[in-house]
Amino acid sequence: MSLLEITWTDPVTGRRGYVVIDSLVRGVASGGLRLREGCTLDEVRGLARGMSLKEALVYRPGDRYVPLGGAKGGIDVDPLDPQAHAVLKRFFTAVLPVVRAQWNTGEDFGLRQDTLDEIAGSLGLASTVEAAFALLDEPGQARERLRAAMAVTVDGVPLPDLVGGYGVARAALEVAGARGIRVETAVVQGFGSIGGAAARYLARAGVAVVGVADRDGLMRNPAGLDVERMLAARDLHGTVDRRALRPDDQTGAREEWLDVPADLLVPAAMSYVIGPEQATRVLARLVVEGANLPTLPEAESVLLGRGVPVVPDFLANVMTNAWWWWVLFGDIEPTAEAAFAKIDVVMRDLVASVTRYDLPLRKAALGLAESNAARVAERFSG
User: Which residues form the active site (predicted)?
Assistant: First the structure.
């Protein structure tokens, strides 16, 4: 059962917004805010539970960063709706006391951090993670580290837009190695911060990204797409300008992403995109969840029955969240080199832990997260 659930109704449009705090550690919780047409309280509740697992999963006793609790927010509005920004500001104004005291939030599906920062600033909030700064002895230095990290770019892409997808790529490659799965080709659904970065770093590891689906449809090439060219032609919503595609690249309907033959499938866009029927169409030998909750439980059972492992979201995409806190708490320098090196070490250790036993990866990762959460609770008891 959640500790706190808020349902807000916009007085202008009637749109609903939600905040769920699943757990608190030292009085605070962490989790992003999403904009999605059709977003529900149940969805946000599940995402908040996932954040509790993500926080606990990366616990390392030697780090300054100690996992926070888990939370999430969501608004039932299309991010491209002309009224979305006004709805977002009214929602954020209404839940501001929770943000100040308990809920550290940031960008998620359909929402960019700079938009959220702009609204927070207009409401007198220095950042969207003020509750975490209150835990620090030297918050001024932490603000400088975070500011410096946010200004880093790597080959034209901001570092904050890369760390999560880099972690997804590392999770895929580490699990493939541990399970003896040869990964030479990949399909990525979604080309925002997670999907775009996952595609980049899979390609740089020698994996041909043969299919990418964005809001406007599918792009495919059996020899491999030019990921860097596509990243340069991507808009703020992760949609690629088709004029940037090469003559031998092909396009198709968005729904055809499951029909492209590949060794690896990375759903990195929306929740609930792989149901039982879609699971029967999956051609990949490994599924790595870049998005939150993309695979329904019944669909995962189908995939496991076919011998297709599923790397759960709270393991695969954990690095966006962890990177923020490693920088803020001072575990790493605000550089790309430090970020990628820390992700490499932590993801390698996590995958080694969850592949040690003959268990579904979700079950093994859940056990590790629950064990870590108990250790954190014991550390701060009394």
Answer: 72 (proton donor)
